[in-house]
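User: I'm new to structure prediction. If I give you an amino acid sequence, what do you actually give back? Let's try with this one:
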Amino acid sequence: MATIDADAHVLETPMTWEHMDAEHKKFAPMVVTQSTGEQLHGSSGNLVKEFWVVDGRIHNKQVNVGLDTSEESREMRDVQSRIDHMRELEIDVQVLYPTLFLRPLTTNAEIDYAICKGYNRWLAEINKAAPEKLRWVVCPPLYAMDKVREELKFGKDNGACGIFVRAMETDRLPSNPYFFPLYEMAEEFDLPICLHSGIASFAIHEAYRTDPGFNRFKLSGVGSFHDLLFNQIPSKFPKVRWGFVELSAQWVPYALNDLELRINRFGRELSSDPLGDNNMFIACQVTDDLEYILDAVGDDNIVVGTDYGHSDTSTEIEALRKLRSDGKVPEKSADKILDNNSKRLYGLN
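Assistant: Good question. You get back a string of structure tokens that encode the predicted 3D arrangement of the chain. For your 349 residues, that looks like this:
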């Protein structure tokens, strides 16, 4: 019985962009340091001094840093330190998600391709050091759709087990036909579409600048789930698996109830197993009312992650041990959530 962390993170550093092609280095994200003004603090109480600059825009770098992990581990400066910490936490496999990419970075196709390609090459190097333990989701340059296939193939050939997307990629809903080639490639390469909390639209991200994160990072993903089902996208691409990551899971009954009310008006019925019938998996949190969730949608399509490396409302580095030991869910359900469900979502053998 394996224990799989369905949502762990790496924190990018300037070393990440050393993997960019020479002709793309001019687009490399740059670190700048604050030297004047009010001191800022991150979610762990840490002093924030550094920021990213990508395509002329400034972004947070040190705000969401989990200080319960070592710098060497969360930044993958020392892969063995990450493996050692996983062993201590009794985690067999981590699926690695990015940090910088949780927000919109550029609308320039050339820059999008350059930074996605560089990031993907970095993750491939990490995977080589521990191919069975450290799997990852590939970042597709969705503004450069003609480059997506090569990145997905590279990812598939180098240990990737999913495709990273956010809400409102390229300022479009996920039901937009623009993404149909992506979904066809997901079927072809047997890689799930993994919608992680975050937003890819500058307009929406900036409108919620003072929001603590609930609207732009959580509800945008919930809306994407609803949009896909309302527009019957999973039935158009029946081989695609869909993951909804770091949104918690307590919203699922609400979203399905609203969906049922809306589709009934069009003479459609909600299936008795909407997650299973649509190959959809939801990452829960140990703070969720798991009894309520499992009663509503069952235990076959729920996974769990630690949010390793971060320090936000989704982070619980002991989540996997707690799920198995705190008695909130039956042992059989815990085993499914920690092992088989993640294997099914990510295609892990």
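You can read the tokens as a compact description of the fold. Here is one thing that stands out. The radius of gyration is 19 Å.
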